[in-house]
Amino acid sequence: MAAAVLENRTKELSSPKFVVTSSGTGAWHVGEGPNPKSKLTWERAGYDYDHTAQQFKQSMFRDQDLLLVMDKSNFDNVSKLSVDKSDIQKIFYLRQFDPQLKQLNPVTDYLKLEVPDPYYEPISVYQDVLLMIEDAVTGLIDLFGHRK
User: Strand, helix or coil at 122?
Assistant: First the structure.
């Protein structure tokens, strides 16, 4: 869902140019399409996005300027693949960009910055997660984006 929101909401920015990719830290769903409840949630919210699951690879540090993770497990798994300090400096919890959470320390307050995985939950939880994502993406765009 985060990639769907970010892709759609950054299309109209003049700079920086956002190229959005999505990957998981495990290989569970590699090659599969989106979770049906995730897709239904982002489509109901008006987002159009095509997704095929891939796994995060060390080479992605080279190709990406910013790596947004959803939870501590993702943060740790991505960090373990880093080669140097410059790689680590690219990793952020998505919700660090939520203006209402900017005072939180990602080292000590990471639980408050996590986006919960709604995988086995009802659609209402997906909708709650979408709202968290939208708030964080708004903050990210406000911080970095410039409109045409």
Answer: coil
